[in-house]
Amino acid sequence: MRHNDVIRESFTTQAQAFAANPWVTDEDRIQRLVAAAHLTGDERVLDIATGPGYIAEAFAGAAREVVGVDLTDAMLAIAKHRTKERGISNVSFRAADAESLPFENGAFDVVVCRLALHHVLKPLEVLREMARVCRAGGTAVVEDIYASEHPERAAYQDRWEILRDPSHVRTLALSELLQLFRDVGLETDSVTTADNLTPEVERWLATTKTPPERASEIRRLLEEDRLHDLSGTRPFQDATGRLFFHARTAILAGRKVS
Hints:
Radius of gyration: 18 Å
Largest sheet: 7 strands, mixed
Strand order of the largest sheet: 3-2-1-4-5-9-6
Distance between the termini: 39 Å
Low-confidence stretches: none
CATH architecture: 3-Layer(aba) Sandwich
Mean pLDDT: 96
CATH superfamily: Vaccinia Virus protein VP39
Number of strands: 9
Shape: globular
Helix content: 40-55%
Strand content: 15-25%
Number of domains: 1
Structural class: alpha/beta
């Protein structure tokens, strides 16, 4: 199966649950991402891997026009329904592959991608496409989870991430994200990190409808991680015994240099 088909299958399965999860819907996190773009109100914005459309909708409230693209029809259906219900007229959605965007060079003032790079086989190609469709002097903004700078610790995190969601490819280290910006001609203007995204493991597993055998192995790996600090995500238990971990995230904003 082609990886894009794996992505479509995974996010079709989890579309409704994903759209309802607090780590996706959190308004403060969404507004931090919008703020990183420093909008003036007249921008044309492209939201890549828009999913249920929360980011596109937020940018539509502060920009002239927003286009949201995604591989998965089930996600696009949610995004279209939400914005239609809210009467938002300056946002549109269409299916597209982030590695081969159907837009002309320099077509957008701002290009944004949230929580998607760890799902793609070629993150460099996605960043290169983001830079291509962004005008000279325009802004690219990426938010994603990031991994340990130590390869063996990063690989441990990817073990349980892939067991949960086969569309996961690899969580990049922060240094790799910065290098991608440099390699595609983006001048990094700001980097904001946070570790306050703490998914509750059982809900996190339920979102992707992880099969019981895989879920059991994930719990085992996370418990080992909790006891021996194997990935840097610092799993922990609350007073009731529920298991959580820290999904460290970074927002990078940069300008396309001419």
